[in-house]
Specification:
With 131 residues, the chain is an all-alpha fold. The chain has one domain: Ribonuclease III domain (Ribonuclease iii, N-terminal Endonuclease Domain, Chain A). The protein is 69% helix and 0% strand. It is built from seven helices and no strands. Helix 2 (19-41) packs across helix 3 (46-57).
């Protein structure tokens, strides 16, 4: 993946981005991980893959996953989570409550931040807790 996507921003520049920007990228990375894992581990047809993917990417599931891994995070990662959770988001969730949505955004911000700072091994360590 590193050779496929060229990231040129420095870590200092990434730190200055909005946590919602981190979450924007994190949403994609997290969903790609889930989709790829399901394709690798199952023989489901596309519709069933979509149904299974939703179980992992909906706000409630992401909020629960964040709660599960929170104690495994470093202080820096907990700070990123806090910033992602507390950012002002004017989007109203459709299928979850506001608190779940805030925690889901926090998880996505963490994944996005780690991706943008090229900490791919750490993303894998965190996402491996899904098993």
């Amino acid at each position: 993946m590193e050779d496929f996507i060229n990231l040129t921003k420095s870590e200092e520049e990434i730190n200055l981005l909005s946590p919602l920007t981190w979450a924007y990228i994190g949403d994609c990375v997290y969903e790609l991980y889930i989709r790829t894992k399901l394709v690798d581990k199952t023989n489901f047809k596309p519709h069933k893959l979509h149904i299974e993917t939703i179980k992992y990417v909906k706000a409630q599931a992401q909020a629960e996953f964040l709660e599960k891994i929170h104690e495994q995070l470093t202080d820096k990662e907990k700070d990123i989570v806090r910033r992602g959770r507390n950012c002002e988001n004017h989007h109203l969730p459709k299928n979850s409550n506001v608190q779940e949505y805030m925690h889901a955004t926090a998880l996505e911000a963490l994944i996005g931040y780690l991706f943008l700072t090229k900490k791919y091994t750490r993303i894998k360590e965190i996402l491996d807790f899904l098993n």
